Amino acid sequence: RKEVEQDPGPFNVPEGATVAFNCTYSNSASQSFFWYRQDCRKEPKLLMSVYSSGNEDGRFTAQLNRASQYISLLIRDSKLSDSATYLCVVRPNDYKLSFGAGTTVTVRA
Amino acid sequence: DAGVIQSPRHEVTEMGQEVTLRCKPISGHDYLFWYRQTMMRGLELLIYFNNNVPIDDSGMPEDRFSAKMPNASFSTLKIQPSEPRDSAVYFCASRTGTRAGELFFGEGSRLTVL
Question: Average pLDDT over chain A, rounded to whole?
Answer without folding.
Answer: 94
